Amino acid sequence: MTTTTITPVYALDSDLTYSFSNSETGNFGKATSIEPVTVVEATNTYNINISKDSAFIPPAFGSYSADTKGTGELLTPNISGVSQMSIGSGSISAAVQTAVRGGTVTYPPSSTVSTVTSSYTENKFTLPDGLYYSDGSIGRLKIDEIDLSVKVYETESLESLAKGAGHFKSTSCWDGNIGLCGHNRGVTNHFGKIHTLDKGDKIKYTTKLGTRTYKVVSVKKIDETDFSYLQRTSDNRITLITCVNNQPAKRWCVQAVEV
Q1: Contacting residues for 232 by C-beta, under 8 A, at least 6 apart
Q2: For position 65, what pLDDT does the model report?
Q3: Span 132-155, pLDDT tens digits
Q4: Digit-coded pLDDT (tens) for 7-28
Q5: Which of 131, 139, 172, 240 is close enough to 125 for a disulfide, judged by CB 3.0 to 4.6 Å?
Q6: Is 92 exposed, middle or buried (0-12, 13-18, 19+ CB in 10 A)?
């Protein structure tokens, strides 16, 4: 028979002294999983970080951005080394950045690491989900200066324009740049007078999210192929577009910013 000796475990000897050196600054949350990947038909290899320092927290359930691609918050923004997950565009001056938009930040907080300047502009965007009224409209446009009050329908289709104004589906429905279009002649001549607006005139737009007032800042003719005025913006504005009489290659474009 084999005899097994069991050595009992005693409490730590109070006479012993234990000391721990300070952990290296900036190592908290350091990547714990770096997977090597071999590039097919190439001689070099590179690493892909799949650890917690590149994870994102999704938007709140039920929010208007919950189902929007590219939205969320960084789990560990101070060490992620990737851009904030949001719809928009930005410029990063170095490979390492934080979620801080604008300003100067240092990563990690060590004198041996150079300072990184990071700037980021978030372009706002709201989907039409949850904004539909019982009649199918998503909002109402009102301009007292030209005696206009018209409902707005999703997409710029002929069906939408036959009922009221149409919403360019590539543009935001609330936050950011709202793009609307309408006929300027015929029975549904809703936008026939928008070119007579002056700078400073007020435009009101109402959705289930509320009512916003905008001030006209520009009224101009643009090429029919010029879609630059419908780009996403960081400020809240509304863009109205309609045809120009007897000039099929041109469009009237009115832009107003929130006041």
Answers
A1: 87, 88, 123, 124, 125, 171, 172, 176, 177
A2: 56
A3: 999 999 999 999 999 999 999 999
A4: 555 555 555 555 555 555 455 5
A5: 172
A6: middle
